[in-house]
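To illustrate the input format used throughout this study, we show a single complete record. The first block contains the structure-token representation of the backbone; no residue identities are included at this stage. The design step must infer an amino acid for every position from geometry alone.
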């Protein structure tokens, strides 16, 4: 028996091909009908869940959730997406598709399978562009400009339905036949289907096995046997009967305080879903910690694959997909080298590679010679090459994100008071502006604690970081980002950004010569060959740069979710998104997606174990009087 891969890798499907139709070697069953798999999907799942009619009835800003118990080739998903294109309402609405796959297809096999359906080619191409690497866990794909969201769980179906939080409107009970894959049709799985359904939820399945029909009936579904597709005589359809109709979500006004990359990403996320947002900032978009001319997209993955590492990895891969929309504008995917720049880091990378199995699309180890060739700079060692990473222009990106018809801006307005009154939040600014909102999200970095109206305190701290702008003529300019004890970006015009210092006990907001010299010295020790012969002992007096204050938490993990007030629990109308530290460009897109889900009542993109890591209650401390 094959050994399971090390984490976070997952075994891909093993296929045999018959006239363009893939068959699972493990389960001995085909993924779709050899006659006409697309028409079978339309008949079984779309028609018997009444999807065209139900799509057209979704209210403005609403959503529809389809859940599926076997992603396979993605044919069912693409058929649902195509039906959404044809029948969705003209106003803003979101289709969510939640699916699980224990043995996912490789990118190459997926492309080969979907090539059989030319009419789906445009949708298949977009799915393939965003198809995640084969690693365990949850992957959120945002497609069709945000109109379609695919939550794809690679792993065991029991784990998926245990850790994901959603309520389906319709179920596609697909997967292989119960006789071929009995684990997918166990009683506990049927009970999970019921738990993830709401009153009126429908389901359809190609199987008509009596045991399955009886189990679904015992779970509360009213089941009916009907005519199957093609050579299949029968199939099942059902509906969850309840006297209590599902509550409808009401759109509420939302204000976001802070227009850094986190606040702007969240505002854009909500606006793309059809939700009006007011974005407030003391200065403007991308002017504080997100205001650097360049920023690297990277994380340092832990030696052990735990929740912290999984959150970092999920954030990195989501961010790479998210920034693709701004490729060659504000996003430059040059690749990124994590240099084994000293013996300690070389040993850490060695242990990391021994204990983990990551796809090469995420990273792979390189020698000194390979590192030098990939970056264009002679290096002293090898490292880890991340081909999908690169660098951003964060200040420009923030301005782009904030530019949307549903985003109202209130810039150059510093908030000095936030209070709850008569069921709404009242926000006052120093220039005597005042607005009200049903919900408020604080994204103000290290200044966030000053705005939280609770009695206790939140363990957040500011860490000064200074970057230096190095003249391009003074460098053997890298063609990719290089990270070690400093990072160095390829040149942007006449300079390249390097940094940043990590000043725990310095609150000086202005650049200093000492910090410039520290950046130069650290970069020189990491990359001795990076300075050109024309640099003439470059020193800090000659440089420009910038200071920003990273916001981090006591455990150096970000925070996103309802504010814990220490008395009654979480406040369902006040949220916090901060503590991203030096990895804000990496964490912000995923955490904005997660908060966007929470604020709109849509299926969260994170499993329970990762959502728990983000809770605000871990930061809360009651005020302690010190004598």
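Output of the design step:
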């Amino acid at each position: 028996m094959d050994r399971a891969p090390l984490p976070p890798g997952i075994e891909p499907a093993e296929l045999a091909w018959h006239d363009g139709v893939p068959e699972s070697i493990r389960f001995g069953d085909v993924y779709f009908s050899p006659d006409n798999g697309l028409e079978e999907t339309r008949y079984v799942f779309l028609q018997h869940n009444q999807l065209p009619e139900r799509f057209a009835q979704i209210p403005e800003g609403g959503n529809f959730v389809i859940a599926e118990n076997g992603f396979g080739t993605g044919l069912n998903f693409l058929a649902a997406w195509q039906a959404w294109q044809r029948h969705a309402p003209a106003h803003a609405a979101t289709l969510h598709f939640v699916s699980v796959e224990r043995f996912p297809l490789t990118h190459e096999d997926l492309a080969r399978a979907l090539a059989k359906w030319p009419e789906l080619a445009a949708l298949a191409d977009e799915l393939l562009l965003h198809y995640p690497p084969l690693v365990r866990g949850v992957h959120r794909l945002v497609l069709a400009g945000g109109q379609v969201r695919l939550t794809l769980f690679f792993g065991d179906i029991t784990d998926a339905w245990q850790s994901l939080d959603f309520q389906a409107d319709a179920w596609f009970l697909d997967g292989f036949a119960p006789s071929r894959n009995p684990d997918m049709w166990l009683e506990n799985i049927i009970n999970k289907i019921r738990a993830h359904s709401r009153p009126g939820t429908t389901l359809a399945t190609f199987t008509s096995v009596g045991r399955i029909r009886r189990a679904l009936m015992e779970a509360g579904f009213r089941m009916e046997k009907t005519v199957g597709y093609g050579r299949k005589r029968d199939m099942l359809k059902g509906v969850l009967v309840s006297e209590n109709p599902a509550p409808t979500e009401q759109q509420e006004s939302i204000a976001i305080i802070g227009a850094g990359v986190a606040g702007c990403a969240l505002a854009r996320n909500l606006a793309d879903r059809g939700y009006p947002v007011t974005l407030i900032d003391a200065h403007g978009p991308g002017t504080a910690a997100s205001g650097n001319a360049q920023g690297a997209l990277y994380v340092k993955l832990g030696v052990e694959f735990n929740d912290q590492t999984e959150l970092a990895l999920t954030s990195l891969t989501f961010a790479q997909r998210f920034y693709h929309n701004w490729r060659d504008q504000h996003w430059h995917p040059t690749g990124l080298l994590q240099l084994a720049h000293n013996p300690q880091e070389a040993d850490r990378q060695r242990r990391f590679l021994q204990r983990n199995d990551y796809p090469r699309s995420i990273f792979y180890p390189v020698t000194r010679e390979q590192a030098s060739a990939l970056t264009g700079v002679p290096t002293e060692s090898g490292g880890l090459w991340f081909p999908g990473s690169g660098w951003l222009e964060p200040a420009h990106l923030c301005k782009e994100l904030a530019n949307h018809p549903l985003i109202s801006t209130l810039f150059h307005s510093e908030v000095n008071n936030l209070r709850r009154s008569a069921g709404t939040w009242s926000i006052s600014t120093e220039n005597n502006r005042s607005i009200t909102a049903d919900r408020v999200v604080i994204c103000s970095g290290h200044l966030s604690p000053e705005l939280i109206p609770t009695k206790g305190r939140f363990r957040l701290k500011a860490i000064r970081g200074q970057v230096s702008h190095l003249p391009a003529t003074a460098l053997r300019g890298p063609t990719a980002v290089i990270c070690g004890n400093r990072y160095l970006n390829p040149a942007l015009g006449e300079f390249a950004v390097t940094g940043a210092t990590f000043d725990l006990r310095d609150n000086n907001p202005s650049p200093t010569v000492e910090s410039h010299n520290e950046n130069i010295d650290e970069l020189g020790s990491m990359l001795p060959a990076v300075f050109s012969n024309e640099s003439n002992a470059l020193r800090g007096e000659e440089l420009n740069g910038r200071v920003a204050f990273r916001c981090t938490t006591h455990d150096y993990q970000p925070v996103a979710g309802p504010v814990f007030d220490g008395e009654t629990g979480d406040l369902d109308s006040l949220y916090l998104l901060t503590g991203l530290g030096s990895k804000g460009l990496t964490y912000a897109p995923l955490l904005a997606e997660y908060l966007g889900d929470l604020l709109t009542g849509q299926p969260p993109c994170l499993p329970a174990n990762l959502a728990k890591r983000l809770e605000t209650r871990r930061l809360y401390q009651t005020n302690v009087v010190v004598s």
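Structural context for interpreting the output: The chain has 16 helices and 33 strands. The mean pLDDT is 94.
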